[in-house]
Write a structure and sequence with these properties.
By secondary structure, the protein is an alpha/beta fold. The chain has two domains: 164 residues, P-loop containing nucleotide triphosphate hydrolases (Rossmann fold); 69 residues, no CATH class. It contains eight helices and twelve strands. The strands form three sheets. The protein has a six-stranded mixed beta sheet, with helices on both faces. The longest helix is centred in the middle third of the chain and has 14 residues. The chain is globular, with a radius of gyration of 18 Å. The protein binds adenosine-5'-triphosphate and magnesium ion (MG). The site of magnesium ion (MG) has 4 residues, from helix 1.
Length: 244
């Protein structure tokens, strides 16, 4: 399997808070990597560096064979990185379809919005996610699970190399969890890699090939899922076990 992403010795501080302290990891083509860790471990911070939201204080990111610095989310997306944020980052006053196509609106005759195309495509993606959300529903009136589906649907307008997902099953119903996990497996079938941040060990054990655990901004475990036990991962997350 070829490596598509390698982050090396990343440090990130927010004033006096050291969020990442020499964090390194890699992701291979089509690999599903679970990123776990306690609250404040630095998971969302590394995701936001890879998504072009934050600049690292130091360290390097190599993506698709070249050193990159993503200066904005658009920059990262253009190079093949799609993201589902922990807070979902949706516009509450807009419809599902408008959120899915935000900043990528489909035009017809060069300047008119092609609402029909956007609604039809949005409907198709929401159906794949088994979501009851409809393209014309306004996000402010949606349930947590429907909002999550809209945020995930945004990643399907392009053919990314990697999808970064921050807690995609945290706010969804018990019935919707397997749909999202199946969806992640389907990305893999299309050779799209997934970095899955999750506090839910059963989800990570079910879909991931490899598990990385962070603690206080550092990596304390990086190994094949088959070599991990739930007890060890839990110990690494809480700090009861120092490293694997
Ligand atoms: N924008 C910011 N400004 C200041 N401090 C921040 C900012 N973002 C994160 N931090 C701090 O950096 C550390 C890592 O935060 P991060 O959000 O990456 O944790 P996390 O692993 O995603 O946690 P959680 O599981 O709660 O989502 C925390 O101490 C947090 O308070
Ligand atoms: Mg987080």
């Amino acid at each position: 399997m070829s490596e598509i992403l390698h982050v090396n010795d990343i440090y990130k501080n927010f004033g006096a808070v050291q969020a990442l302290s020499g964090f390194s990891m890699s992701v291979n083509e089509g690999e599903i990597v679970g990123l776990m860790g306690d609250n404040g471990a630095g998971k969302s911070t590394i995701l936001k560096i890879l998504a072009g939201n934050y600049l690292a204080s130091s360290g390097t990111v190599n993506f698709m064979g070249k050193d990159v610095v993503f200066n904005s989310p658009n920059d990262a997306r253009k190079q093949g990185v799609e993201v589902v944020y922990q807070d979902l980052a949706l516009c509450n006053h807009l419809t599902a379809s408008k959120n899915i196509y935000l900043s990528r609106e489909k035009k017809k005759f060069f300047f008119l919005m092609d609402h029909k195309h956007m609604n039809d495509t949005s409907q198709g993606i929401l159906d794949q996610l088994n979501s009851s959300a409809r393209p014309n529903d306004v996000v402010s009136g949606m349930s947590g699970g429907q909002r999550q589906a809209v945020a995930i649907a945004r990643t399907r307008l392009s053919m990314p190399k990697i999808v970064l997902m921050d807690e995609p099953t945290a706010a969804v119903s018990v019935a919707q969890v397997p749909v999202i996990l199946e969806y992640i497996k389907n990305l893999q079938k299309q050779k799209i890699a997934v970095l899955l941040i999750s506090h839910r060990l059963p989800d990570v054990m079910k879909v991931c090939d490899r598990i990385v655990v962070m603690r206080l901004g550092e990596k304390v475990c990086d190994k094949s899922k088959d070599l991990c036990t739930p007890e060890e991962i839990t110990g690494l997350i809480t700090g009861a076990i120092k490293s694997a």
